[in-house]
């Protein structure tokens, strides 16, 4: 299986190289029926289920028979709160209920990996090394998205220490932020571009802790490195060989 790569950027939008993607998460064949079932269950679980109507037993009034049973030439009625009367109870109306569906964990994992693999096949997985912003600034967030070539709808997967970045992105339209532990299939399919940090990219592979190491990245091409040497600049060894 071919090695999957995603571009790696710094917080200012400059390219730092590439990072290898786990083929077991980003390189599987998407299972469309499973993804559909999981998304349907997620949307159903989001329903409040609070709609409620009153039956004829719950509507106030109607305790007396409106007129006698026979002799008036009118239809017989026992209560003015029957469903056919204006202001009467509702027959078979909605009541509070839970729309949640039980979805096996294996199906959720398979659907999420399928959605991530679909975005990876479209080269819509971007990785930010880390957000070293000291203060929230929407202008910096917008410039970063333009520099990395993000799509119109963006899912930003942030770590626990990226509160400044979250504040910077929240005023931009069509931006959805979440942490790695709450990444869902629906969110991935909604977004056109998925932006990870080095920390969250490792978190979704099931590692309890992920530290950026040199062998997690791929060096830039030798031609660009040679050009940098020719210019007199120091060639950065940041990155190392890809796994």
What does this structure look like?
Strand 1 and strand 2 form a beta hairpin. The chain is elongated, with a radius of gyration of 29 Å. The chain contains eight helices and seven strands. Helix 2 packs across helix 3 (105-121) and helix 4 crosses helix 5. The chain has helices spanning 23-26, 32-45, 105-121, 138-148, 163-169, 185-190, 198-203, 222-230; strands spanning 4-9, 15-21, 125-128, 154-158, 175-179, 193-197, 217-218. It is α/β, with parallel strands linked by helices. It folds into two domains: 4-46 and 100-212, Ribosomal protein L4/L1 (Ribosomal Protein L4, Chain: A); 53-93, no CATH class.
The averaged pLDDT comes out at 84
The biggest beta sheet is recorded as: 7 strands, mixed
Please name the CATH topology of the largest domain.
Ribosomal Protein L4, Chain: A
Strand order of the biggest β-sheet:
5-4-6-3-1-2-7
Instruction: List the helices and strands in order.
Output: EEHHHEHEHEHEHEH
- Name the overall outline: elongated
Q: How much beta, percentage-wise? A: 5-15%
CATH class of the largest domain: Alpha Beta
Task: Give the N-to-C terminal Cα separation.
Answer: 13 Å
Low-pLDDT stretches: 207-230, 232-243
Radius of gyration: 29 Å
Number of strands: 7
Work out the helix count.
8
CATH architecture label of the largest domain? 3-Layer(aba) Sandwich
Domain count: the total is: 2
